[in-house]
Amino acid sequence: MRTLWRAIVRTIFWSFERGSWPYDLAVILIILFVLVTPTRWFHDQPQLSAVFASKVQLESEDPARQTHTYRLDATALPAEKRAARATPELERETHDILARTVAELKDQTFQVIHIEPVSAQDGSILYYDVTVHPSPLM
């Protein structure tokens, strides 16, 4: 019983000499655990939707044109990506944020049709009104 207890304590405190068979066995067990463990056991994905959820709001829907307009807070974008006019880079960034945060857009393809930056009196961007249209799956 004492030998078993000593082995448990040595394992917990990792007191085996490097290159010894218990050390090698422990390393092999750790590697097997990492490689064989199903990924569904761990849900350590960053929860970006929780961070940006308050920064994205549905503003309007147009059933005739099948478009939705979302208001995206400018602080959801890095400062260097904010632009006073629509650019391809701004379009990509807003598309990515909407795809991660808006539940209706997560599992479908959509196209950003129009981006309207709204500025404060001092010229800084407050938010963007982003109009999107769902695209048919190809």
Q: Could you walk me through the main structural features you see in this protein, from its secondary elements to its overall organization?
A:
- The structure is a single chain.
- This protein is an alpha+beta fold and about 140 residues long.
- The chain folds into two domains: about 1-40, no CATH class; about 50-135, no CATH class.
- It is built from four helices and four strands.
- The chain has a four-stranded antiparallel sheet, covered by helices on one side.
- It is elongated, with a radius of gyration of 26 Å.
- The termini are far apart.
- The mean pLDDT is about 85.
Set down the secondary structure blueprint:
Blueprint lengths: L1 H11 L8 H16 L11 H5 L3 E7 L4 E7 L14 H14 L8 E10 L5 E10 L4
Antiparallel strand pairs: 1-2, 2-4, 3-4
Uncertain spans = none
Task: Tell me the count of domains.
Answer: 2
Mean pLDDT: 83
Helix proportion of residues, in percent? 25-40%
Q: Name the beta content range.
A: 15-25%
By DSSP (H or I, 4+ residues per run), the number of helices equals 4
